[in-house]
């Protein structure tokens, strides 16, 4: 039986009906892909805007910007001028085409800056979990921002819900190791979501020192750090390669024991070993071997510039702020005192605070003097950007205590703590303790003037109250007693004027926190004396015992430092001749007895001083006007 042929028109109509679902699916997939791409582009745009906003919120000063650029900006090499055809160039230089035979084209500086816009420097980072996905995403976004600005994080993962050492039970040890390995994979995953190149380092880079004390692994020049862990050059090569290629290495907290078995250890021990190994310049032989294996790895300076501890607790609680975090810590002066004054109840709210304090103290001992450590909550990841640019705490510790704590809640539990090596602080109360040569050098370099030594030191022998010295005269605050011959003091002024005669910081220590450490010590010895938060641990200090005194000083009207003085003073007046501004800080203990709280509209409490201290400022101006200049003409 022969079937009649199917007409062409109905056949085409049927095929169209069959293809219609296929076409609609294809169109739907296309729309879905375009919608996904538009969402991805929008997310990237939002993230870039957030990145720019984080930089702007840091509000870096000119000095901060210069400091950042000195570490992360690429070195500029002068471009040589090529004379034409071997003749001396006597007129304007004519640019030669890159295709001219025999002349090597010079690199375009614009193209070079676009291809390599930053000089990569490493930072040691401890991610102290466990964190939820949302928290980890926020942390890794901050790590990605730091990477874009040139700081390549060398991350060691940690979990507070696991013991610091591996258990004896083999199955439990394996389970815990898998948990830590999963954390490494999570960190790499979330870094990739924020366009940050990351490299999981699942091999062991650290080793345990031989208990017998024999040479480590047959390698010369390798010494274990205090905790018995060291990093070999071969293990360090994983980190060097990653930093050279701009990738973030994410490491396991493990080490090989003397039997070449991998053991999970405390992440703090790994970080201490890395700080020691990365801060040591490699031998020429190992450096050349690294350079041959990677064209750029041999040129990378692995010395870490920052230590970041990201946790759920926030900064280290302060004995002076009722458990709120320290803003900045001078380890050379405060390390022992913070350990002694750590309150028992803080072991529940901040169980790892002291171990992180020890970690920062140990790591910074190997790092450059300008390096710093930041202990920060995962809720304050934006603070890492500000710290990278400014290398300063979130708020200056030398600002008035009431302004920091009571005004708008500037300090919260999540405020980060900045730690520096710092310098020891001493309070000298007699001229016999003062090194006049070093003090003269400090004052002349700081003020850029020549000191009239004979007249200046003669006056100090008669009127000296105390001198605060930071380090080996890296900074000094000189206070004298003025108006001692006055028979009747003004109202509410019990004695002579505590006058800040000189406040100086050596140029080499400007921007490294010395100025804040010096002012905090000055406050603790004068207008903050007698309060709980004035328990100054410095050598020779009054340790907070005594009655506070008004601190008075003067500054030239055109001094650019006056803005900084204004933020730390209770008030100021301009002298009648207009040449000086007289600043003062009221004694906080006495002032606290005079303040009364009154409730105004809206339920807001405002502190008002009921009685003005009439005649006090006029007396200050008269007495300070009698002081002759300390400088030669």
UniProtKB/TrEMBL annotation:
It catalyses: L-glutamate + acetyl-CoA = N-acetyl-L-glutamate + CoA + H(+). GO terms for cellular component: mitochondrial matrix. Residues 74-107 are annotated as: Disordered. Residues 82-100 have a biased composition (Polar residues). Pathway: Amino-acid biosynthesis; L-arginine biosynthesis; N(2)-acetyl-L-ornithine from L-glutamate: step 1/4. Residues 423-608, 426-601 form the N-acetyltransferase domain. Pfam families: NAT. It is found in: Mitochondrion. Its EC number is 2.3.1.1. Keywords: Acyltransferase, Amino-acid biosynthesis, Mitochondrion, Transferase, Transit peptide. Its main location: mitochondrion. One of its GO terms (molecular function) is L-glutamate N-acetyltransferase activity. One of its GO terms (biological process) is ornithine biosynthetic process. Signal peptide: none annotated. N-acetylglutamate synthase involved in arginine biosynthesis. Belongs to the acetyltransferase family. This is Amino-acid acetyltransferase, mitochondrial. It comes from Kwoniella newhampshirensis.
């Amino acid at each position: 039986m022969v079937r009649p042929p199917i007409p062409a028109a109905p056949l085409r109509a049927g095929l169209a009906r069959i293809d219609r679902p296929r076409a609609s699916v294809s169109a739907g997939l296309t729309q879905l892909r375009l919608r996904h791409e538009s969402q991805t582009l929008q997310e990237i745009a939002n993230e870039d805007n957030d990145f720019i906003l984080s930089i702007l919120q840091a509000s870096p000063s000119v000095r901060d910007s210069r400091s950042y650029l000195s570490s992360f900006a690429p070195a500029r090499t002068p471009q040589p001028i090529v004379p034409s055809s071997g003749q001396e160039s006597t007129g304007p230089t004519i640019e030669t085409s890159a295709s001219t035979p025999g002349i090597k084209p010079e690199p375009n500086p614009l193209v070079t800056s676009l291809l390599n816009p930053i000089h990569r420097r490493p930072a040691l980072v401890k991610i102290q979990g466990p964190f939820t996905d949302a928290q980890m995403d926020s942390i890794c976004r901050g790590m990605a921002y730091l990477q874009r600005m040139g700081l390549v994080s060398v991350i060691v993962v940690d979990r507070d819900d696991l013991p610091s050492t591996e258990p004896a039970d083999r199955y439990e040890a394996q389970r815990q190791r898998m948990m830590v390995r999963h954390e490494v994979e999570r960190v790499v995953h979330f870094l990739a979501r924020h366009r940050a190149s990351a490299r999981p380092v699942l091999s062991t880079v650290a080793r345990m020192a031989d208990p017998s004390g024999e040479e480590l692994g047959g390698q010369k020049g390798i010494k274990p750090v205090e905790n018995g862990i060291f990093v070999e050059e071969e293990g360090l090569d994983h980190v060097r390669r990653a930093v050279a290629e701009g990738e973030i290495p994410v490491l396991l907290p493990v080490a090989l024991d003397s039997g070449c078995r991998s053991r999970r250890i405390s992440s703090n021990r790994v970080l201490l070993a890395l700080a020691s190994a990365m801060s040591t310049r490699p031998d020429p032989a190992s450096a050349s071997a690294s350079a041959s294996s990677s064209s750029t790895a041999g040129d990378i300076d692995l010395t870490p510039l920052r230590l970041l501890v990201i946790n759920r607790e926030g900064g280290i609680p302060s004995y002076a702020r009722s458990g709120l975090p320290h803003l900045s810590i001078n380890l050379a002066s405060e390390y022992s005192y913070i350990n002694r004054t750590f309150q028992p109840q803080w072991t529940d709210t901040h169980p790892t605070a002291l171990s992180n304090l020890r970690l920062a103290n140990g790591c910074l001992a190997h790092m450059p003097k300008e390096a710093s450590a930041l202990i920060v909550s995962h809720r304050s990841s934006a603070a890492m950007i500000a710290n990278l640019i400014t290398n300063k705490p979130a708020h200056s510790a030398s600002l008035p205590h009431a302004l920091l704590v009571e005004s708008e809640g500037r300090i919260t539990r999540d405020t980060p703590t900045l730690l520096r090596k710092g310098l020891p602080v001493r309070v000298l109360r007699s001229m016999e303790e003062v090194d006049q040569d070093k003090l003269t050098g400090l004052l002349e370099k700081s003020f850029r003037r020549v000191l009239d030594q004979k007249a200046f030191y003669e006056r100090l022998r008669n009127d000296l109250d105390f001198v605060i010295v930071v380090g080996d005269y890296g900074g000094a605050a000189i206070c004298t007693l003025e108006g001692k011959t006055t028979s009747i003091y003004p109202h509410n002024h019990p004695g002579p004027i505590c006058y800040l005669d000189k406040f100086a910081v050596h140029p080499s220590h400007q921007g490294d926190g010395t100025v804040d450490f010096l002012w905090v010590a000055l406050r603790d010895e004068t207008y903050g004396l007698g309060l709980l938060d004035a328990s100054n641990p410095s050598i020779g200090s009054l340790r907070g015992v005594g009655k506070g005194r008004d601190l008075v000083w003067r500054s030239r009207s055109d001094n650019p430092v006056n803005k900084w003085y204004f933020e730390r003073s209770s008030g100021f007046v301009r002298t009648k001749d207009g040449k000086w501004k007289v600043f003062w800080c009221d004694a906080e203990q006495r002032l606290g007895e005079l303040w009364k709280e009154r409730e105004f509209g809206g339920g807001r409490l405002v502190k008002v001083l009921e009685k003005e201290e009439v005649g006090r400022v006029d007396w200050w101006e008269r007495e300070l006007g009698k002081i002759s200049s300390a400088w030669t003409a």
